[in-house]
## 1
Amino acid sequence: MFDAKFVRNNVDAVRAGVAAKGESLTLDNFLALDEGRRQKVTAVEQLKAERNQKSEEVAELRRQGQDTTLLQENMKALGQEVKELDAEIKEIEQRLEHILLRIPNLPDSDVPVGPDESHNKVRSLHLLPRQFAFAPKAHWDLGVALDILDFERAGKIAGARFAIYRGLGARLMRSLISFMLNLHTTEHGYVEVAPPLLVTYDNMVGTGQFPKFTEDAFKIAGQELYLNPTAEVPVTNMHRDEVLDGMQLPLYYTAYCPSFRAEAGAAGRDTRGLIRMHQFNKVELVKFVRPEHSSAELETLLADACQVLERLAIPYRILEMCTGDLGFAAAKKYDIELWMPSYNRYVEISSCSNFRDFQARRANIKFRPQKGAKAEYVHTLNGSGLAIDRLVAAILENYQEDNGSVRLPEALIPFMGIEKITN
RNA sequence: GGAGAGAUGGCUGAGUGGUUGAAAGCGCCCGCCUCGAAAGCGGGUGAACGGUUACCCGUUCCGUGAGUUCAAAUCUCACUCUCUCCGCCA
C-alpha cells in the first residue's frame, strides 16, 4: 500500500506502474477525494482549535467564579459542526483507503515489461529433462499403483482437490519437510517457526491477499478467521505493528504449513493429481530486511530455494516474471519451475518475491536504523522453499523406473531409510 | 463456558473531567567534566495528518468503537486482547 501523499505527489508513476501490471486505475476519483479531504481537515482543525481555546476560557472563568452558561451555549453549535465535519472526513478517508488498498505494488525498474506470462524471461536452466527409455507414467497413476497416494478416498472425506498420503507416501512427505527445514535452518540461517494456520482479516490485508482476493480464501463459518493460503501470511504478520531493532536485521524465518486455497478461478484446471489442491503443503521462507539490502536478499532467497532442487537433482529453470505476471504485491519476482514429465513442461514449484515496503506499510512493520533514529518501514520478501506436493509429484515422475518403482534422491535416503519405493 | 483483574510513550509505571502529549524512573541522543571511559551534572528524546517547508504552527492519538459534556486518559456502553482461579479438553 502507498500512503496518500505518495500517490498525490507521484500520480504519473503510480498510473504507469499500475498499467504495467495490466490494470487500469484513473486515480481521478482518488485525487478529488484527497483534495476534498484536505479542505475539510483544514476547516475542522480551525474549529477544533477554537473549541480548545474556548474550553480553556470556560475553565479560567469558572476558576474566577464567573458564570459561563452563555459561552457554553455558543459552544454547543460549534461542537455540532465539528461532529458533522469529522463524520464527513471519516467517510472520505474510508473511501480513500478503499482505493489505496486496491492499488498494486509498482514493479521495480529492472523488471521485464510485458502483459502476461508469455513475456517472462527464462533466466537459467538446471539439469536437463531425463530422456525416458519407456513411456513415463503420471504421478497420479504411479502413486496409486504404489499405494502411496489415494485420491478416491480423499474425495470421500473432503471432495475434489484433496489427497491422502499413505505409507511410504506419507513418509516421503514428512521426509521432505524435515529435509528442507533442516537445510534452511542449519545451512541458510533461517529460524524455524510453526505459526497458527488460521489468520484474521487484518493479516490477509497485511500481506496483500485482501481486500482484492477474498474469494480465493476459505473462511471459517461465523468467525472472522480464514484458513491461511500460505505461511507467508502468518509469518509476515508475526511482526505486525512492531518497530524492530535495526541491529537484529535481517530476520530470516522458515515455516512448514499446510496451506488452503479455494482455487475459485481454476475450475477444471489441473484436476488430477497433486498439482492443484485445496489443501497443500509448503515450506516457506520469509525475510525482513533493510531497504538497501532487499534486492540482494531476493537473490540469496532464490538461491536458498534452488538449493533444495540441486540436492534432490530435479531438472528446473528460473523465470524472471514480467510486469504483467508479478501479482498484486510484488515489486520483483522469480518463479522456479521444475520439470514434470506428465505435463511435458515445467511447473511452478516456488515464487520468490521482493515486496519492498508494500506489505510493511499494510502490516505496519518498521525498524529503527540506529538507536535514536526515526523508524522506517522494513522490506519483506518471501518464497516457497519449496511446495511439497508438487515436489512429491516431480520425484515420483522424474525418478520412476520402467517397472513402476521409484528410486529416491540421494538426499532423501537418510530420511526415508530406504533407497526405493516399490510395490 | 463461569468468576475476577488489567490494557497509558522504546520499556517500567503515576494520573482528582479543565495549561496532561501525559509525572517519575530506565533506555537513548547532545553537551560539561575526563588523556579516554564510568559516575556525576545540564539539556533533549513518540507517532500520524494538515499548513509552511528555514524555523515553525495547528489538529488528532492513553487497547478498539460508540456515547455523555462547553471540555474525556479520567464518566457510560459494547467489543477485542492479556493475566489469575474454576470447569472442560489434546
## 2
Amino acid sequence: MLKENFNHYSLILDQTARRVKQYAQASFSLNEIDLTVDQWAVLKTLYENTDLTQKELADKCGKDQPTLTRIVDLIIKKDYIKRIEHPSDRRCLHLQLTEAGLKKVEDLAPTVSKFREKAWENLTKEDFEHFTRILNKIYQNLEQK
Amino acid sequence: MLKENFNHYSLILDQTARRVKQYAQASFSLNEIDLTVDQWAVLKTLYENTDLTQKELADKCGKDQPTLTRIVDLIIKKDYIKRIEHPSDRRCLHLQLTEAGLKKVEDLAPTVSKFREKAWENLTKEDFEHFTRILNKIYQNLEQK
DNA sequence: CATAATTAGTTGACAACCAAATTATTACAA
DNA sequence: TTGTAATAATTTGGTTGTCAACTAATTATG
C-alpha cells in the first residue's frame, strides 16, 4: 500500500461527504424547507430522544458543544425547540421540541428519507455492510481516549 | 433496506470525514505546522502540477472557486505561493509556489504522509477497493450534469 | 462588427467547524 | 468547610463551505 494514496483516500472521503450534504441541502431548498441539514439532524435526534441535555445531544449528533449551541440557538429562533432548566443540575439545560417542532419533524420525516435515498442507489446489501464497517473502523482508529 | 437507515449512513459519512480532517489538523498543530489541512492540500497539488489556473486547481482539489480564492489568499499571506498573469488570457491567473513554498512542501511531505496513515490502520487491500468503489458510486449518484 | 452568452475570479452573507478561554455550577478532597 | 478540580454551556476568533451576485475578459452569434 503506497503512502501517497492515503492523502487520496482522505480527499475522496471529504468530497463525498460534502456532496451528500450539498445534495440534501439542495433538496431542502427545493422543497422550501426552512432548515439546514444540520438543524434537521438535531431536530430528528431530539424527536427520537426526549429530555437530552445539550452535551448529550452534541454527542449523539457528533458535534462539538459550541457548534451545537449555535445550531440550537438558530432552531430556537424558529420556535421548533426550547431550553428548559434541568431539575437537579443548574449547569444543564434540557431541550424539548415545541408543538411546532413536533409537527415539523413528523411532517418532514418521510420527505427527507425520500431524497436521502438517491445517494445510495445501485448499492447492494453487502456494500452497505462494507461501508458501515470500514467507516466505523476508520473512526475508531482515530478515537481519542 | 429500511429508509430510516439512509439518514444514519449520511451521518456516519459526515462524522468520519470530519474526524479524519480533525485528526490531521491536530497532527499539524502538534508538529507546529503553520498550515491548515486544506491549505496543505492546495500547496501539495500545486507542487505536483505547475502553472495551474485557479479554476483548474479548484477542480483538482475538489473545492469551489470561492473557497479556493480564500484559501489561496491565506497562503499568499504566508508567502508560500504567488499569483502571476496568464500569458494569453487576462481572465486567468496562474499560481506558482515561491521558494519558501517549495521548501515547505518538500520538508513536510514525508511527515504528513506519516500521520495520514493512522486513519487507515487495520484495513485490507480489499477494504480499500470497497472504500474507493462505494464512495465513488455515491459521488456519481449525486453528480449534477 | 456589435451584441449576447460564457468564463475566471472575487466578494458578501450566512452556517458550521474547531480551539481556546470564560462563566456558573457541582463534586471532591485536604 | 474551604478550596480545588471537573463539568455544562457559552463566547470569541479564525477557517472553510455554500449560494448568489458581481466585475472583467473572452467567445459565439447574428
